[in-house]
Design a protein that fits this description.
Elements (H helix, E strand, L loop, with lengths): L9 E3 L2 E3 L3 E3 L15 H12 L4 E8 L20 H13 L3 E7 L15 E3 L12 E3 L2 H20 L4 E6 L4 H6 L14 H19 L5 E6 L15 H14 L3 E5 L21 H8 L6 E4 L5 H9 L5 E4 L1 H5 L3 H6 L14 H10 L31 E5 L3 H12 L3 E5 L9 H4 L9 H13 L4 E2 L6 H5 L5 E4 L3 E3 L13 E3 H5 L9 E5 L3 H12 L3 E5 L11 H11 L5 E3 L2 E7 L2 E6 L4 E6 L2 E4 L3 E3 L4 H5 L5 E3 L9 H14 L2
Parallel strand pairs: 3-4, 3-12, 4-5, 5-8, 6-7, 8-9, 9-10, 10-11, 11-12, 13-14, 13-16, 14-15, 16-27, 18-25, 19-20, 19-25, 20-21
Antiparallel strand pairs: 1-2, 17-26, 22-23, 23-24
Helix pairs in contact: 3-5, 5-6, 12-14, 12-20, 17-18
The protein binds flavin mononucleotide and iron/sulfur cluster (SF4).
The site of iron/sulfur cluster has 13 residues, from helix 9 and helix 11.
Cofactor: [4Fe-4S] cluster; FMN
Pfam families: Oxidored_FMN, Pyr_redox_2
GO molecular function: FMN binding; iron-sulfur cluster binding; metal ion binding; oxidoreductase activity
Length: 657
Amino acid sequence: MKYPKLFAPGKIGNLTVKNRIVMAALAMGVAEKDQTIGPAFLAYLMERAKGGVGMIVLENTRVDDKHGVAAECQASVARDEHIAPLAAAAEALHKEGVVFFTQLHHPGRETFSNLNGSEPVWSSSSRPCGVCQQETHEMTTEEVEEVIAKFVAGAVRSQKAGCDGVELHGAHGYLISQFLSPYTNQRTDRFGGSFEKRFNFVKEITEGIQKACGRDFPIGIRLTVDELLAPNGVKEYLTLEDGVRICQACEKLGMVYINVSNGIYESFNSLSEPMTYPQGCRSERIRAVKEKVGIPVIAVNMVKEPWFAEKMLEEGLVDFVGLGRAVVADPQWAKKAYEGREDEINRCISCTFCFETLVADTIAGKGPVKCAVNPRAARETLYPAFKKEGAGRTVAIVGSGPAGLEAARVLAERGFAPVIFEKGEKAGGQINIADKPPHKEKIDWIIEYELKQLAMKGITVKTNTEATPENIRALAPYAVIIATGAESIRPRSIKGVNNANVLTVDETLLGRPEISGKKVLLIGSGATGLETAEFLCAKGNEVTVAEMLDAIGKGVYVQHYLDAMDKLSKYDVKYLPSHKLTEITADGAVLEDLKENKNVTVPADYVVLSLGVKSVNTLEAECKKFCDKTFAVGDARQPGRVESAVREGFEAAWDLK
Ligand SMILES: Cc1cc2nc3c(=O)[nH]c(=O)nc-3n(C[C@H](O)[C@H](O)[C@H](O)COP(=O)(O)O)c2cc1C
Ligand code: SF4
């Protein structure tokens, strides 16, 4: 047994958990429109249960239909009709030996009025959430009591459904967290004014549940133990010292575990960290709690790999390891670790695409969360078992980036015989460029996973082999998948664009040539531009970022923007928003200042263009002449993100008839 600590049974209150792996609550938007757990949700949960986790905490589970709505397709225990489907889920999960808790949740101010009867959102005080920016109503004492009763009723329904316990969602700036924090609680009744009074909300909920469900019914709590608001300039907020004190008070109340977390919406990246954060980035805060409480401590900690989970247990940092995105990306994470097949795990690369889709789509009821590396996540009923009908037929795949390799993997699973052409010396396509900025190594995991899966089926990538219509045709392929990716745009209309001092981001990141100690003008502040700026800064260059739009990083997903700007703040970068590139000269560039309506000259040794990419697809039309089942996928079809590349590769292979 490679991970003895991870797979040792553990106790939570009176419950025995078969191992130390707890699937953390994850809002996936996969509940039915009436918030019951239907076939899609059950399939999602069961895959993770069969995949070996010891305990599952259901997603943020609604207790209040009127002012407590976080998303349309959200699990709920707000009404009696939710009990029976929840009971079916509990029964099925118990058959897999999984301990199952609901996560009782009220969003308070961290939601939207349009989800809550177009009324102002409720909170402990009237300070609006800086992210949601909704008119916020300070709950009256009676309203607080009403919500306490709803939490209790939610616990009773969870118990009736056969759940093993409930986890109070006291983290991430939601309502319980709002009451606990001096930042969001300025009340003067019995629910605010001092530490003890701020604690009364969670205390009365807990005592209410204990009274209604019996003291034996396990109650755990997920807590933000530090709001991490100092970088936002907030003076008074819930600090780690407060957080530890709250944990101790929860233990005294008879709670059976503390699930340590951190952050609120306003300290965004602390909620679900981006790729640049290392495994273990929360250890300091977890340790502070573990040292001061006797009940079991569960914690997520950017854990992506079993060795790290084992290390946390070995060091006594936690009693149970929380896995969030790791089991979205690979539902079989625990099983593979148990069987010593950790090199087969589809590791979460922490790209935060799931969170992005949660915010952009799921909350608004526009479909479940999406995972960049696992197109089946939250779509298990749409994509059940692979149809093995390939019968050994050859499929030519051109390009070995994420789209091509994912297509090959799925085709191989289906019994086709993929032949993968790669003109470069290494598989990976644009991932071999995307992994170059600082702290982006995790992105390589996509390729490592695909290559491992293919190798297990005896399939290798034909590197240094350029595909031509002739050599593809020679295979007499049943289908052809064009996954030739994209290349940087170098707009011909700009004077001087082909000068020796002009590089694309691809050339820059690949070190062709290596640039250090130079003055660099980078044009374009999209996500790639900002990452390239950091790459250049880290090599000792003096960097200016020019952007035609009126703000730097406009349109970049907020987590990536905050992360990139945080990293860049360590360097002396000059930003020029509203500046359009008009000409490149031998010693710099001429930019049009769109606000002042005048041209400015920016001296630079190099001008790096980050102006987007265009598809590379020279083979599709040719191949269609001899193979009507020819499809372009990923960037070759249309430039997109890693998620669309993987998904299109997956879908093309899944749909091939
Ligand atoms: C899509 C998504 C939904 C989430 N929903 C919840 C939730 O319902 N309740 C909760 O406590 N945390 C939620 N989280 C936070 C995760 O449980 C977890 O704390 C976070 O992703 C960091 O852990 P990880 O690196 O293991 O994923 C969510 C995170 C993501 C990415
Ligand atoms: S979308 Fe990205 S961060 Fe989210 S689970 Fe998938 S790989 Fe991980």
